[in-house]
Amino acid sequence: MRQQRHPIKNVVFVVKNSVGCVDTVRKPIDILTKPPITLSFKDTLICNGDSMQLHATGFGNFTWTPASNILNANTPDPTVFPPVNTKYIVELNDQGCIANDTVNIRVVNFVTLQAMPDTTICLSDSMRLRATTDGLRYLWDNASTLSDPASLTPMAKPVNNPTVYTITSFIGPRCRSTDTVIVSMIPYSTVSAGPDTTVCFNSSAQLNGTTNGTFLNWSPTVGLTNPLSLITQAVPKSTTNYVLSTINSLGCVSKDTVLVKVNPEVVAFAGRDTLVVAGQPLQFNASGGETYILGTTGV
User: Fold this and answer.
1) CATH for 240
2) Total-model pTM
């Protein structure tokens, strides 16, 4: 896209000499804006001894300065190889209208890179790797266990114990640096809340928990005689899942659940009192249970 043209302006030139003669000229003038110029980047790094190509877009004639350590300085895409930090200025001239912009190139002798410290996580957990660098491109190994191996901060789900993650950071083809992070894993503690059980309404069930970790508690605590004991009595009002939680030395929490099923309350009804004729049969109509045992009491 060439530079934009503003509406034509009518310019009046008035000329007067020393003896009072005056003449006037009217002329339309086409006013142009500065040509637009775009850089692909404005600040970057280069390793000492490397070269890189700059890139600008626009219509007109390009000139890059300074003229040292540069090839094709009168093109949009010169190649530069500065030995020290350098500011390159590009000038774009289109029909006498001039625009300019700058690219700052910092020259380094090596890539700085610092990976996070070695760490330990719970077995099968994920974690985020982190590193800091002035590199322009970086890559972690063990890519199949990472969310994005080309990111400085990928999510990792290590498989082997331990897993060594190595990051390489690059500036150009020559400069590179590596660092490693060792991720160790410890297993969750084993925990058992015991087998599921069934109790009658308003009866108690004994919970028998076991673990090789540090016991935390049972939850919910309602209906428990001691929620902070591995072995405790539960008197739930309704069917309840009790969760046993434990923790290991790294803080990995393990849980197991036991179901205590509570049967409905039995409301026994033997039928209404009645009179019978001696020696005659009598039909009883009891309700409220599943099985019945008939007994007698003296009157």
Assistant:
1) 2.60.40
2) 0.65
